Each structure stands twice: as structure tokens, then as C-alpha cells.
Amino acid sequence: xxxxxxxxxxxxxxxxxxxxxxxxxxxxxxxxxxxxxxxxxxxxxxxxxxxxxxxxxxxxxxxxxxxxxxxxxxxxxxxxxxxxxxxxxxxxxxxxxxxxxxxxxxxxxxxxxxxxxxxxxxxxxxxxxxxxxxxxxxxxxxxxxxxxxxxxxxxxxxxxxxxxxxxxxxxxxxxx
Amino acid sequence: xxxxxxxxxxxxxxxxxxxxxxxxxxxxxxxxxxxxxxxxxxxxxxxxxxxxxxxxxxxxxxxxxxxxxxxxxxxxxxxxxxxxxxxxxxxxxxxxxxxxxxxxxxxxxxxxxxxxxxxxxxxxxxxxxxxxxxxxxxxxxxxxxxxxxxxxxxxxxxxxxxx
Amino acid sequence: xxxxxxxxxxxxxxxxxxxxxxxxxxxxxxxxxxxxxxxxxxxxxxxxxxxxxxxxxxxxxxxxxxxxxxxxxxxxxxxxxxxxxxxxxxxxxxxxxxxxxxxxxxxxxxxxxxxxxxxxxxxxxxxxxxxxxxxxxxxxxxxxxxxxxxxxxxxxxxxxxxxxxxxxxxxxxxxxxxxxxxxxxxxxxxxxxxxxxxxxxxxxxxxxxxxxxxxxxxxxxxxxxxxxxxx
Lengths: 176, 163, 231
Known about the structure:
Chain B is an alpha+beta fold. Chain B has helices spanning 17-27, 66-70, 96-100, 133-137, 148-162, and strands at residues 4-7, 46-50, 53-57, 76-79, 83-86, 107-110, 116-119, 143-146.
């Protein structure tokens, strides 16, 4: 099953450190020496602030991803444990942006051999960064973001299922 | 009110027959063809058989389900006015539904066409029998299909006994 | 100011500071790194002294008789209520990401990308609709003390009739608007409540140009060549 990052609105304080960490991680070390005016800001994770909560939105690496289905050129592809985005194949048709039910895919401009291309931008679990692990998760000051790895969902579910059984057992007649 | 399968832990012996019955009814198999370790043969309930725990856990078909709100594509809806139903064809496998259930009653499971979808107790609504196989097949009659009538009878029984 | 300093790194500066302050002499770089932070007082350099979690534990206060003094004040209403001329309330807040006056964080290129001049005034979407402004539009916010230009941010987080701004901005300088009324006991100015008016700016292009030139002017006065040039 796919790995993915998910935020917890109970802990999220809306500080947006995750957004900055995402950009810096993908930009690499050159970020501190280039002309600041030339820097773009295209985080793959977004903080949403509503009336009652703040929460992150990012790619859920869906098992039956609708973005993969609608991509006409295979730029979005189901990988072994995530949904892969091959930017070099992207033709900028924007259908993935439209179809994602979470609004987790956005379009960005990239410089490409003298020209500018507009391609889709989504969470890649920091696979293409130096650290190799999600920067948003490691930088969140309140630990509101969790990296769910292969068995994490199953473990979370098993835990709750067992607790349900234990709760039912605990109120068995004849026991206090 | 939604109907749901209720396990009386005073009677349950944790034998797991309900899991087998579930698989048999959903895949039209004989008992001898049931393989509990085949991910494509999904039991939608889970039993526990431990020295200090004998119980079965099913989806409780909540009236105000936290799971339904979590689905971003509307694949979950109330069906026949009596259960919370997952439309597996619409499921995009985002796992929000699975994580939202406070009972851990929903799981991700592979289906024949290679997709991975959310799966849970569906009261055997699309099977041949049309009624929960686990309830019928429980050797200790620990499982009951709770509906308006059976719930009323259950409550009445307890009220009269405690009065 | 002329004092001849030679430090090789920030740790040397900190070591000098903490040697002169008994209350946090124990907060060495190594300890801060190991624990993630040290709550003062922390007197001893050894790892046994991890700092003090509860400053007044056991009820010992820095007063003559060692007891804490609880003071009460009667409720006093705000000094400037909203009225017909200035119909919206105005509050000032802090947001995570930029620090106080932004002299340093304003020159951090990533933080500048996250938020930049002239800042935002948060308003309820109903008020924005009535005024005819959309998200990002430059507006003028006016009070009896002064005015500023900033961008409109419609959000449900604000009640209708209220507004707030973060106080980091140089162009969207919210303290141009706030009240100089002082608290009778503490003498803190009443920064958190005054009356304001939000005005739509018809010539957005002119307003945008103004913001750009103002920003460049302020930066040149501060001696910064380019935003983010330092970090």
C-alpha cells in the first residue's frame, strides 16, 4: 500500500513551516546563494485556515488515484509505494489539478533550457531531495504531520479494532 | 434507524465462524474453499480469540458516521434506508474513510481488478441470501441483526429484568 | 557604538552573556542542543541542572514576604468605540513566520515568499462583498490617527464588523492607526482595539506602484540592497 503524509488539525497551528520546509528541501543548497528575486515558491503542501481550524492539504497518494486515470501522457504513474510525478512528461493539460478531490495538485512554472514550462506540482514524499524523507514532517514544530509508512494504516486500524473488542469485553455481564 | 450486527460478548467464544461465513456468502464459496490468508477473500468482520478476550467486531452502521463525511468523492451513502454502504467502484483508495472510523471497522483490501479499496460490513446486502451470513452461522447465537424491532425487544428485556 | 569586540562565533557571545547572568549561567550551547531548550533559571553548567519548569514552585515569589500579589482592576470599556465615521473595529495580532518588526525575517528570502509587504487586513467575507473588494485588492485603512495601504484578506475567521492586521509590516504599518490611550496602571498603549474605516482603492495599478516605490525607499534607507540579500 502507498505511503503518505497526513496532518492532524488538532495539533496544527497554521504556522506554515511545512510549506517553507517543502520549498527549501526541493530547492537544495543553492537557495542561499542565488538571487532572491529569482526564487519561486511552489510548496507541495498547503495550509488551509478556516473559521474553526487550520489544517494541511497534500497529496494522499491514493490507491486508485483519479489523477493517474486522467493523465493522458503517463506523467502521473502508480509507483511501488506512492504516486509518481514525472515532470518531464507533463504537458500542462491541468486535468489532474481539476480531478484531485483534495485540491492537492497545483500548477507551477519551471525553467527549462531557456524557456518556461508550466507543469503539475504535487507531493513526492521528498523522494527527490537530499534528505529523502518528508521535510514537512521533520520540521513541523507541533508534530502535527505524520509519515504513514507501509503498515501504518493497518496498524492504526488493528489497534482501534482491538480496542473496540476490549471495550465490549470489559462491560461483560458479571464483571465490574 | 440503521440495522447493524451486534455481538453479545457473553455468548461469543471467538471461534471465527462469522469471518468464514462472511467470506462464503460474499464469494459464493464452500467452507472447504475458504482460505483465511488470501487477501482477495476479505472477511468484513474480525474476531478475537484470546484467553481474556472473545469478541467479534463489525461496522456499527453509525447514524451520524464520522466516516461518511471523510470520503472526498461521495462513494459512501446510506442505502435502502438501513446501512452505510461503500460503492467500491467509486473508491479512489485515499484511506480517509479507513482512518476516520473510531472502531477500526474499515480496512483497505485488494479487489480482483487490481485496485485497493475500503471495505467493511455491508450486511450481506448484495449476496444471494441477502441477510447477514455471520448471524445465521454463529454456533452460539452470539450475533444478532439489530433493527428497530430486535432493538426494542432487547431493550424491553433488559428493562424488565432490571425493574 | 565603538566597543571593540572580537568574537569568532555566536557561541562565544552567548558564553560571555551567560557568565555574567547567574540566572542562566547553566544554559550552555551543549545543554540547549541536547534538551531542545532550557527554561531559566538554570544556575549550574552540569547536565544535572536542566532548568526550572515552574518559576514559582512551592509558592516562592520575589517579593518582600515571598508571597505573590494578586491585583484586581475594575472593568474599563475600550477608549474608542466604533461609530458612523469609523464603523469597524481594528485589532493587531502576531502571526507565526515573521518576527515583530521584520528587520531580520523580512530579509529571509523564504519567509518573504511566504508573506510580504504590504501585508493583509483580515475582514469577514460579507464586509468585503459590501465594500466591493476581493482577496488581494489593495485597500486603504484609516483611523483617527492615520492611514495605511494593505491587501484585503476575506476570511471567516473574523466576525462581520471586525478587522485585524499583523503588526510586522512597514507599509501596512498597523500602529499608524492604533490608539495612544494608556492603561492606567501598566501604561501599555491600547494596541488591541480602536475604530477604523476600510476604503476601496479604485486605481489598483497606482496603488501597486506606490507600494513598490515605498518598499524600495524603505529598503534603501535601511541599507539593504535587495530583499533576502543577507540570508
